Task: inverse folding
């Protein structure tokens, strides 16, 4: 569906019919620009009236030092900026992880939430919240603020490794077994999480509830640094899986015939997804549906080529989460809604819409 | 040269192939025929590196079991019986996946246009912008063939022959496109490459194959030129029906053979 007028920056060279790469590149450029705008908007909006213009003047125009008051400076640099950066990291990680999972499972509805990765990470995090002052006290004392992200990451990775062991026989992974094993693992992790919730005290319950709903509140540079160490390498690695995932769309055997080392590809996808998802669950709790909505919307525009879909998902996921967060922060100001409620409210109906649209077209 | 020596495949306790010896030479079309469940597809899967097997399979002297996927992808391309796609790729995008191994054998500047040429070769010029899922089964099969052709466009690369492994390449095609696809295979062989194709149509096999290999109960029942292999006795033993080779139907019932096509 090469529309010459949409052929993008390199559009001077005529592209063959059915080649959507020009349109995809243009979309990436638009998304990148859009993300910058959304980030600036996010940085300058909120309960405080630190003005957008003041911030921009302060940054770009070399305005006198008094362009920002000390209070505004604190709000911008220590509260909003870490939150914006965290929102971008979390949104990008969730969206790209979703796209990679969908490529791996050859199913547009696959999501890290589906194969138990998120549930495993959640179990790890809840263990620290509930048992952190009792049985796990030595551990939390040792690790300090890093205990929560590390526990979530370990939980996600453990779930993924068990999953991989169960679903892989003689070096081959069965996608159907993997999906079903993921459902079983998620149920088990939820049961254990439920048990912990059952024994939690009232204060812990409140922490748990807010964490489970998902939130970007309480972002600090330290928390961010701990998560970024895991998320950034995973985000950087995943676009390198794009070509292999494209071939995998034709099936595992055909991908291998095309020269793709399929087992290595699957293993790399699994490790990177569980790392990225574990770390995001740790810092932001249960933010759902980003991994399904973002790649699906993008596929409608740029097509299913992962070379454009993966970077595009990172950009759109980051922008979308910032918008959802801005909405969550302002809609009931000065209080703030957990962002997980916003993404679920958008994502749930969207998910159903995909189901209805695809019913009968593609076997789910 | 493709060489199978004493190849056997067992899935669980069931033995699907036993003691198969087979050679497919470059410059030739080799047809594999046989009844359903005789092991034809299993043979092709072992040859493609999809299955663990006993014995030895070598392509141009290299052991298939020890070959890296990328190395094998430069030596042979495999046409599956049917391919479903999970995502809405355009025809162009599917065919272009054939270029993934980067060993099509055309100069780098021409590779971008190769999908169009491959589509024209399978009579699908003008289909590049369509969505794969919207095509008929026969059209999808030809799109896959175009993809496979892109992978090994040059039948000989760096002085070494390459191979097309085709699993029932004409199973969902009308007679005109059956002939066209078999012409593509013969053209590839004439260019110095080798073709191994599973066929059900014995007339088509007799017309196009240089050698026919007959599978029966997981073993090779016969191999040779069409004239050597196709006789009444073998067909009765292998297929279990009493047919006469070369007999014209009694009573003037019309019949149409691919061999009767006017020379082009």
Result:
């Amino acid at each position: 569906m090469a529309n010459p007028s949409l052929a993008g920056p390199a559009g001077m060279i005529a592209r063959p019919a059915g080649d959507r790469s020009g349109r995809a590149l243009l979309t990436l450029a638009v998304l990148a620009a859009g993300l910058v705008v959304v980030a600036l908007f996010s940085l300058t909006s909120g309960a405080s009236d630190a003005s957008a213009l003041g911030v921009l003047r302060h940054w770009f125009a070399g305005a006198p030092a008094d362009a920002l008051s000390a209070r505004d400076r604190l709000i911008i640099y220590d509260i909003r900026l870490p939150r914006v950066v965290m929102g971008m990291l979390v949104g990008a990680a969730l969206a790209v992880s979703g796209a990679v999972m969908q490529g791996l499972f050859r199913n547009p509805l696959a999501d890290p939430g589906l194969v138990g990765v998120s549930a495993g990470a959640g179990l790890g995090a809840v263990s620290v919240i509930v048992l952190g002052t009792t049985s796990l006290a030595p551990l939390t004392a040792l690790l300090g603020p890093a205990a929560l992200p590390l526990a979530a990451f370990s939980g996600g990775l453990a779930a993924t490794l068990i999953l991989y062991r169960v679903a892989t026989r003689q070096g081959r992974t069965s996608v159907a077994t993997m999906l079903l094993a993921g459902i079983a693992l998620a149920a088990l992790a939820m049961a254990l999480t439920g048990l912990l919730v059952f024994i939690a005290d009232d204060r812990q319950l409140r922490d748990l509830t807010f964490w489970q709903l998902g939130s970007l509140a309480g972002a600090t540079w330290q928390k961010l640094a701990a998560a970024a160490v895991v998320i950034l390498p995973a985000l950087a690695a995943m676009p390198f899986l794009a070509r292999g995932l494209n071939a995998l769309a034709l099936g595992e055997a055909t991908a291998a015939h095309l020269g793709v080392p399929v087992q290595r590809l699957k293993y790399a996808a699994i490790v990177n997804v569980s790392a990225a998802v574990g770390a995001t669950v740790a810092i932001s709790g249960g933010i759902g549906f980003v991994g399904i909505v973002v790649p699906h919307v993008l596929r409608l525009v740029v097509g299913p080529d992962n070379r454009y879909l993966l970077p595009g998902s990172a950009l759109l996921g980051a922008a979308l989460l910032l918008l959802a967060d801005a909405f969550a922060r302002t809609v009931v100001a000065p209080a703030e809604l957990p962002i997980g409620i916003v993404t679920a409210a958008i994502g749930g109906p969207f998910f159903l819409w995909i189901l209805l649209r695809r019913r009968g077209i593609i076997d789910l | 040269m493709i060489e199978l020596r004493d190849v056997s495949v067992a899935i669980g306790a069931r033995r699907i192939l036993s003691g198969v010896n087979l050679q497919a030479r470059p410059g030739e079309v080799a047809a594999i025929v046989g009844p359903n469940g005789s092991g034809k597809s299993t043979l092709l899967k072992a040859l493609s590196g999809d299955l663990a097997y006993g014995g030895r399979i070598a392509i141009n002297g290299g052991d298939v079991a020890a070959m890296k996927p990328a190395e094998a992808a430069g030596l042979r391309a495999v046409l599956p019986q049917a391919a479903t796609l999970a995502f809405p790729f355009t025809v162009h995008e599917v065919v272009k996946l054939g270029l993934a191994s980067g060993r099509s054998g055309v100069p780098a500047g021409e590779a971008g246009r190769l999908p169009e040429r491959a589509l024209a070769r399978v009579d699908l010029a003008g289909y590049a912008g369509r969505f794969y899922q919207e095509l008929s089964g026969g059209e999808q099969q030809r799109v896959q063939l175009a993809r496979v052709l892109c992978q090994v466009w040059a039948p000989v690369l760096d002085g070494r022959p390459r191979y097309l492994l085709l699993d029932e390449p004409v199973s969902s095609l009308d007679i005109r496109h059956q002939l066209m696809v078999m012409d593509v295979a013969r053209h590839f062989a004439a260019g110095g490459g080798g073709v191994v194709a599973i066929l059900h149509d014995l007339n088509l096999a007799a017309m196009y194959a240089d050698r026919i290999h007959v599978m029966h109960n997981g073993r090779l029942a016969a191999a040779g030129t069409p004239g050597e292999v196709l006789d009444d006795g073998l067909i009765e033993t292998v297929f279990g029906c009493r047919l006469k080779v070369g007999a014209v139907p009694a009573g003037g019932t019309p019949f149409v053979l691919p061999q009767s096509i006017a020379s082009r």
Observations:
- Residues 116 and 186 of chain A are 4 Å apart (CA to CA).
- The longest strand of chain A covers residues 168-169.
- Confidence is low (pLDDT under 50) at residues 1-12 of chain A.
- The beta strands of chain A are 168-169, 172-173.
